[in-house]
Amino acid sequence: MRLRYSDVTPEKLYLSRRELMAGAIALAAIGCDVGAEATAAPMPAGAPLKATPNAAYRVQDAPTKFDAATTYNNFYEFGVNKEDPARLGQTLKPRPWHVQVDGLCAKPKTFDIEEVLKVAPLEERIYSLRCVEAWSMVIPWIGYPLAALLKQVEPRPGAKYVEFTTLKDPEQFPGQKPGFFGGTLDWPYTEGLRLDEAMHPLTLLTVGMYGQVLPNQNGAPVRVVIPWKYGFKSAKSIVRIRLTDTEPKTAWNKAAPQEYGFYSNVNPKVDHPRWSQGTERRIGEFRRRTTLMFNGYADQVASLYTGMDLKKNY
Ligand code: MTE
């Protein structure tokens, strides 16, 4: 099946979104914030969440406005439009919640979400997140390295990959109901990383943002953030993390393998079949920026891919 972001959006809605964005760009040109102006969904009240800023991991650019980061989202479980997750997100119940961590490990364990929160000290890291659709945001995330959680279950030597699975529950995620627009992905949403990518210190198990508990639309109660990869690798509302010896199948790769590869490293030299990846629009800005190799994290992660052809392994 050939499926693209625009293909899963009904034409009328897709056009109206384009019109909306054209209007937003016009607003940006006169100094208004694009994301915040584009939608008017009320903000859920986020409980404060304490975290220690980690100065080693912070991009210098100003963070995207909170309103934009929480109203301009991709979360197809709530629909295919950017404003759907903020509008419909209240059906997701982030408590009670469990995360099963299993597969090729010596000590598989199902963690209660309260235990997940205590595995390692919470840090605030300011990462930029580059979406495959050629926009980006700068977000102060709260979490700790995924490696800390994985070490608790003691991966076996045969473990080579990690698979993330998002909750499947059409009562909580209307987009998973048959016939709902966005019912086009093979639910549950799954993603994956090589084990060395998952253990990399940049890979953040994320429970909050902007000093608050994660809003539902951003993947409550727990998600991953992998800042050198396109945003769709950062699976939201995770219920299972499985260690495996084979490359996991991923939701977008299953839907359109020629467009969304397993690696999906941000790479300005490898275009998406339908658009350039050479530049990006930072939400809230008008001018386009040059996209950086590995989203600017090349010094930290390029060595993971030594000797690999990144055009083939897109
Ligand atoms: N996770 C799930 N379960 N479902 C999704 O549709 N969208 C991905 C990713 N994680 C998605 C998901 C995409 S395409 C992006 S760009 C990021 O979430 C967006 O994260 P944000 O809304 O917090 O900015």
Q: CA-to-CA gap between the ends?
A: 19 Å
Order of helices and strands: HHEHHEEHEEHEEHEEEEHEEH
CATH architecture: Alpha-Beta Complex
| Anisotropy-based shape | globular
* Strand residue percentage: 15-25%
Q: Explain this structure to me?
A:
The chain has a single domain (5-305), classed as Oxidoreductase, molybdopterin-binding domain (Sulfite Oxidase, Chain A, domain 2, Alpha-Beta Complex), CATH 3.90.420. It is built from nine helices and 13 strands. It has helices spanning 11-29, 34-38, 66-69, 84-88, 113-118, 146-153, 195-198, 251-255, 298-301; strands at residues 52-58, 98-103, 109-112, 123-130, 135-145, 161-166, 190-194, 204-209, 212-213, 223-225, 238-244, 279-282, 288-290. The strands form two sheets. Strands 1, 4, 5, 8, 9, 10, 12 and 13 form an eight-stranded mixed sheet that branches. A five-stranded mixed sheet has the order 3-2-11-6-7. It is globular, with a radius of gyration of 18 Å.
